Amino acid sequence: MGSEGPPAVTIHVTGFKKFHGVSDNPTETIVSNLQEYMKKNGLPKGLILGSCNILETAGQGALVPLYQTLQSAISGKDSESSNSKRIIWVHFGVNSGATRFAVEHQAVNEATFRCPDEMGWKPQKVPIIPADGGISQTRETSLPVEEITKALTKMGYEVMPSDDAGRFVCNYVYYHSLRFAEQNGIQSLFVHVPLFLTIDEETQMQFAASLLEVLASLN
């Protein structure tokens, strides 16, 4: 039987807990409610929603749980997602100064935290993975950021592609995730969202669902 459209894709999602200056992290709400929201509105064809995890907003101190989370996506390759050829990690992070959504194209091998993370770590100009080289080293997602952004803009969202995920925990997690994805034949994407004060919760939930739909439709 010829299969129609792109093969099934399993998408695993993460958000972050609160951190310095952001007591209510919108990504914690989005990711905590995503399973239920997608179920209620119907999963797009070809999409399997995998795990939805909330990460500690910390770098080095939270590496072990981060890798356990990333690893869970591929250890489950034989179970529910066995008919899925593609696995994508989608990481949501908040940019409290943003007025629109941003799809991040790359991460930089530099940890320079403007404030301590939730475990008190405040690195300055430290390479995230020293074996990769210096702090100007970048890793790029293999997903088509421009195409994804265009599709979401067409759906009516205020969204832009971005080449700068900052140098804080978002960039730190994305860099590790991109490296992990490359090593394990999967894909990774980071998306920055504004505060709910800027774009309300319902719109952000719709955006998250639309993003997954766009990712599932990619060939």
Automatic annotation (TrEMBL):
GO terms for cellular component: cytosol. Pfam families: Peptidase_C15. It comes from the Eukaryota. GO terms for molecular function: pyroglutamyl-peptidase activity. GO terms for biological process: proteolysis. The keyword Cytoplasm applies. Belongs to the peptidase C15 family. PANTHER family: PROTEASE FAMILY C15 PYROGLUTAMYL-PEPTIDASE I-RELATED, PYROGLUTAMYL-PEPTIDASE I. This is Pyrrolidone-carboxylate peptidase. It comes from Vitis rotundifolia. The lineage of its organism: Eukaryota, Viridiplantae, Streptophyta, Embryophyta, Tracheophyta.
